[in-house]
Amino acid sequence: MRSTILGLVALSASVVDAFRDTSPFFFFSTSEILATTPQIVAAASLSDTITSELRKCPSDTYVIVSQPGVNAADYQDPFSAPHIRRNLAGENERIRSSMKVSNVVGALDAESMSKVVQEKCGAEVLHIDASTGSFKIGETARPLIINLDFPALPAESGRASKLLEHDSFLASVLNLIPSSRYTVLYTTTPISSEQLSIMAEAEDYQIETNFQSAVHMELKRDFSAHRRESNHSTTPRSAPLFEKYMFFGPGLFMGILATFLLLSILYVGISGVASLQVTYAAFDREMGPAASKKQSQ
Fold first, then answer.
1. Is the model's pLDDT at 229 over the cut of 60?
2. Structural contact between residues 110 and 185, judged by C-beta atoms closer than 8 angstroms
3. How far apart are CA 272 and CA 293, in angstroms?
4. To the nearest whole number, what is the mean pLDDT of the chain?
5. What are the tens digits of pLDDT across the range 170-224?
6. Which residue has the higher pLDDT, 202 or 68?
């Protein structure tokens, strides 16, 4: 039984580590691309599936996004990447095919995808660095590949806000594409071990800070309530004597009640003794042996 439990614990730990080394992949296009894949797939297998579709040159513009240092949990917030979520959910009428893979084991080689499109479709390449915040897309007669590189998300706080900025930047790029036939390949890489350690330390610190804040607020609330109660119960020095001091308390009341009861018992006893009446003839009557002899004679 113990070995079975240890085996399950080891298996769960390995599963957690496996998901820790994964990252999502998003794909949407205005063309019909019938590519399907499971939610957990190796990067090499996914790369072969996507590459086989790219060899058909389904679009005029290919946007290959590179977002390092993320995992699937970063995209669960509906406000972190609303434009990507809208395209994947089919809310954009122009999008005819989409695909979402939550856990890709390993890192996709975006450069190899770009080379396949260059060789098979004769496409030009445009590099856009999102960290500069500026770009220019011109019209071209040949297919166009836009390599959009985003910086890694911060390890501590502000990951959702930074991801929202990247999502808005991608939406701006898509709005400036001259062709209506485009395909977006959103590749990501897992969070590094250094970032994971920093995130774990920040989470522990946040939990400890929240606990200390909760305890501090609880103590402060108790102290404030006690102080308000003391202020309400305290009478001013200029108050009258009978308002400033309590003369008739519970102890005094019980003492008076007991004294009244004892006095009542004493009164009944004294009254009973005082009501006894004895005649003087009772004292003149002879008692003892002499009286008994007289009676016998």
1. no
2. yes
3. 37
4. 79
5. 999 999 998 889 999 999 998 877 766 665 565 654 555 655 665 556 666 555 5
6. 68
134 residue type, one letter: S
**Where on the phi/psi map is residue 40: left (φ > 0), alpha (ψ -120 to 50), or beta?**
beta
| Percent of the chain residues topping a pLDDT of 90 | 39
pTM of the model: 0.61
Residues 6+ apart with CB under 8 A from 58: 29, 31, 32, 33, 181, 183
Token readout for 68 is: 């390092």
Q: Which helix (H) or strand (E) holds 92?
A: none
Cβ neighbours of residue 114 closer than 8 Å, sequence gap 6 or more: 62, 64, 125, 145, 147
Q: Which neighbouring-strand residues pair with 185?
A: 27, 64
Measure the CA–CA gap between 188 and 65, rounded to whole angstroms: 8
Q: Is 3 helix (H, G, I), strand (E, B) or coil?
A: helix
Instruction: Using alpha carbons, select from 113, 115, 135, 117 the residue that is nearest to residue 126.
Output: 135
DSSP string, 105-141: ES---HHHHHHHHHHHH--EEEEEETTT--------S
How far, in Å, CA of 161 to CA of 126, rounded? 27
